[in-house]
Amino acid sequence: MDYEVVFESENISYVKLNKKLVNDYLTMVNDPNVANKISHETRVYTQEEELSWVDAKLQKGALCFSMIEKQTGDFIGNIEIMHIHDHIGELGISITPKKQDQHYGTEAIQTLLKYAYETLNLEGMELNVYSTNPKAIHCYEKVGFIQDGVGKTEEDIHMKISR
């Protein structure tokens, strides 16, 4: 498939969101093992809702990228800098279940940090992670994030990293 590659790492191409990937996006966000890690109020999304989400992200030029495995062309997940405030970005990442536990999260976060620092000239990154997601917490700590108190809710952890 033809995608608009924005940047790359060893095993991953980071491409602009693409309507051709909507079924992959739906498979990921509607999987209970992903949904319960990205929202406290899980629900099933429709194809129409997902297409609207893609349109909205593309219209506002969101820094949201789909990750494509270079070797196979398979969809891995999405990674995004959701908000930028005072030169600090907010990281969000989700990986489709069949591509989890293959170190793509670590590679993707390290690559996004490099992109954020070198291309966007950001000074750091922060994120919110559910305390019930130890695999994600471990991954974030592995790339250098440190826990920095309570997140958006009492069950969440705020983490940050600086240049």
Q: What does this 3D model show about the protein?
A:
This protein is α+β, with helices and mostly antiparallel strands and 163 residues long. The protein has one domain (5-127): Gcn5-related N-acetyltransferase (GNAT) (Aminopeptidase, 3-Layer(aba) Sandwich). It has helices spanning 22-29, 32-38, 47-59, 104-118, 134-142, and strands at residues 5-8, 12-16, 63-69, 75-85, 88-95, 124-130, 146-150, 156-162. Strands 1-2-3-4-5-6-8-7 form an eight-stranded mixed sheet, sandwiched between helices. Strand 4 and strand 5 (88-95) form a beta hairpin. Helix 1 packs across helix 3. The longest helix has 15 residues, at 104-118. It is globular, with a radius of gyration of 15 Å.
Walk me through the topology:
Layout: E1 5-8, E2 12-16, H1 22-29, H2 32-38, H3 47-59, E3 63-69, E4 75-85, E5 88-95, H4 104-118, E6 124-130, H5 134-142, E7 146-150, E8 156-162
Parallel strand pairs: 5-6
Antiparallel strand pairs: 1-2, 2-3, 3-4, 4-5, 6-8, 7-8
Helix pairs in contact: 1-3
